[in-house]
Structures are given as C-alpha cells and as structure tokens.
Design a protein that fits this description.
With 283 residues, the protein is mainly α. It is 64% helix and 0% strand.
C-alpha cells in the first residue's frame, strides 16, 4: 500500500480480526501479528500485578499442605462416642408446595446472570472479575498442570497467559463464547500446557484423569522468528506509535476513547497519527 486509503485500512483491520478469530494470516498482517504478541506480554505484566498477591497466598498454602499431618489423623475413631445429630431432615416428608422445575429454572437463570456479569467485568478490566476468575478456576488448573509434570510456577504462568488470551477473544468482534468463561480458560490452559509438554518431550501422567469440561480450542503461538522480527519493528516505532497501535488494533478501542486517553486534539488527529505509524512498518 503506497498511500492511505480508508478502504485499504479497513481491509487491514478486517484481516487482522480474521486472524484473531480463526488464525488466518495474510501478508499484510504479519507485522501486526508480531506486535500482537508483544502487546500480549505487556498485558500479562499488567494483570500479573493483581494475580501475584493471590499466587503468594497459594504458595504459602501449598507449603502448609506439604507439611500437614497425614490423612490418617483425620479418620474417625469408631470406638469413640460421637453424637451425630441428623435433625429431622432424614425423616421429613417432601414439601408438596416445592416446585423442582421452577427451582431449577431460577438456578440456571442466576448462573447465567453471574456468568454474564463475569464476562462484562473481564471486558471492562474490573479487578473483582479477575478475583472471581481466580477463585473459580485456578485450583483446577493448578491440579491439572502439577498432575502432568508441571510445577506451581508453571500453573501460575500458564493461567496468566490464558487469562490474557481469553480477554483478547472476548474483545474480538465476531467472537462467540459458546461455553462458560471458566471452561474456555481451562481448555486454553490444558492445550497450552500440552504443547509445552510436547516441546520438552515430557509425557502426560497416565495417572491423571480428565474430570472437568473442556473445549477443543486453538491457541495461537508466537511466530518462529518473533524475537528477530519484533526487534526490527520496534526500532522503527516511537513509544507514541506503539501506544496508538496497541489501543486501536490490540485493545480495539473506539477512536473517541483513543483520542481522549492518548491526548489527541481530535479523532482525525489520532487517525492521522495511527496511519503515519503504520506506514513505517506496513505501507
């Protein structure tokens, strides 16, 4: 592309979004893809400040668990005089006014509302949503990775990688989340860890059984020449260029928001700056 043209820039954006959705790469998007992984690592550093506080607690708990007494000490002494009070529930009759179907419908609706609130919170970058995702999902992800030749540090690293990937997907136009956010996150962690195991020639534990729901999803990996190519791209771009490319392509923010957040006098001024920056690496 030798000069700016709205249709050409729109095509570039659509090709980039197509890659985010389906992994379909074009010659025009190669530099944007290299930058995408650079921005992904920046995002991971951003959210790690939040998760680190939870991980430190988790590490302390793991140490306590390792030093704890054996399970035998928790067994009941059958010769002791324990008084088990079951109350009246074991003998009570079912409530004739109880509507099981209505109760089930309300429970499902409540779960759907909670899931929607979680997804919206993640898209908006709310710390409470990160907290909820950690509380819901990290334990099972830690269990899977440690049960398959991994460590606690591996589990923490993979978890953060996939939280970022989930955020990217949720912000991508045209993406439809066909399962719960937690299921997608678990599937991402599972697939990413399996790829790492293959690269390091480690095997999956034959003692581990899959007990959680997962989806077969693709996890796009960094291009083979990422470091070399990225170094060349970054040498051509100023910090202001990186910020506007990150805001428009990676974060997919609106022009109004970009102009305000990055301090441009108008939307047109921001658009012109974005084109000048892209011209250095693409046009």
């Amino acid at each position: 592309m030798n000069k700016s043209h709205p249709m050409e820039e729109e095509k570039l954006l659509q090709e980039y979004i197509e890659w985010r959705l389906n992994g379909t790469e074009s010659s025009n998007t190669q530099d944007l893809i290299h930058l995408h992984f650079y921005f992904r690592n920046l995002k991971k550093l951003e959210i790690s400040k939040f998760f680190d506080s939870f991980f430190s607690i988790d590490e302390k708990q793991s140490l306590i668990d390792a030093l704890s007494v054996s399970d035998d000490s928790l067994a009941f002494d059958l010769d002791s005089d324990y008084d088990f009070d079951f109350g009246e529930s074991a003998h009570s009759l079912p409530d004739p006014t109880f509507d099981a179907e209505e109760s089930k419908r309300r429970r499902i609706l409540e779960e759907e509302n909670q899931e929607n609130d979680l997804v919206i919170g993640l898209v908006n970058g709310e710390e409470s949503a990160y907290h909820e995702l950690y509380e819901r999902e990290f334990l099972k992800i830690r269990e899977y990775i440690i049960g398959n030749s991994g460590s606690l540090a591996d589990a923490q690293d993979i978890f953060q990688d996939c939280v970022v990937i989930l955020l990217e997907k949720l912000k991508t136009p045209g993406f439809k989340l066909t399962c719960k956010a937690g299921t997608y996150l678990y599937s991402c962690c599972r697939n990413l860890w399996l790829k790492q195991l293959k690269k390091s020639s480690r095997e999956i534990s034959s003692d581990y059984y899959e007990i959680y729901d997962f989806e077969e999803i693709d996890v796009y990996e960094e291009p083979d020449n990422q470091e070399e190519k990225l170094k060349l791209i970054l040498s051509k771009l100023s910090e202001s260029c990186l910020k506007i490319i990150q805001a428009f392509y990676y974060e997919l923010k609106s022009w109004d928001k970009i102009a305000v957040e990055l301090g441009y006098s108008s939307v047109n001024s921001a658009k012109n700056q974005k084109y000048k920056c892209l011209k250095k690496i693409i046009y």
